[in-house]
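re the bet — no i am not wrong, look at it urself. input seq straight from the record:
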Amino acid sequence: MRPDGSVGPSDATASGSGRITVVIADDEPVVREGIRLILETQDDLAVIEGAGSGHEAIRICETMRPQVLLLDVRMPSGDGIWVLEELTRRRLLGNGGTHVLMLTTFGMDEFVDEALGAGAMGFMLKSSSYEELIAGVRATARGEGSLSPSVARRVIEGYVAGRRSPAVSPDDARRIADLTSRERDVLTLLGDGYSNQEIAGRLGISEHTVKSHVSRLLAKTGCRDRGQAAALARSIRDI
C-alpha cells in the first residue's frame, strides 16, 4: 500500500501469493501508517488498503474481500459496531469472508462485549506490543479468537462477577427486551451519566440521532425521563 493509502500493483495480488490480506480501518492516517509498517515487516502479511471511516471500510471489504479487517471502535461515518453489523447483513463477515479484529486505544468494557457479540474475532489495544498485534492478526485470519492480555483479564473478571451477581429481575428484562443494539448502547451511556453530545462522540453518531434513540428507548422501557432511564441502566449489569 502506498503512503496515501492507495493500492500498489503488488498489493492487488497479495491473496494469490499466500499472504494474509489486511485492511486497516482507523480515522487517524498516522495510526494506519504505523500499523501498516509493523505488519509489513512480516513476509506473510500484506496490507492492501486503509479506510478512514466506517462507510469506507464497508466499501473496501465489499470490493477487495480482505481476510482480516483491523477495525477501530470509534470512527466517523459508521462506528466499529455498525461496521460489524453491516458486514453481517451483507454476508461478508466470517465463513470464508472477512474476519474482524477490533483495535482501539480504549479498553471499554461495554464495547468489548458488544464487539464480540456482533461477530468480532478479537479485541486488541493499540498499546499492545508488536508481537501481540502480529499474532492477533494471524490468529484472526485462522478464525481464532484473540484478546489483548489486559482485555482478556477484564472479560474473565466480568464473567466471574456476573456469575456472582444477582440475575436481572423479570420486570427489568421485560422493559429492555425490545431495545435495539444501538438503543442499549445509549441506555448504558445514560446510566454512566453522559450527555447527548458526549454519547454522540462515544458512538460516532450525530446528536440528533442520539435524541431519537433516547425518545424511543424511553417509550419502550416506560421510563418517564432520562433520570429514570439512567437508574434502570444502573440497576442491571448486562443490557
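see?? The first helix runs from residue 29 to 39. told u. also The longest strand covers residues 45-51. so pay up
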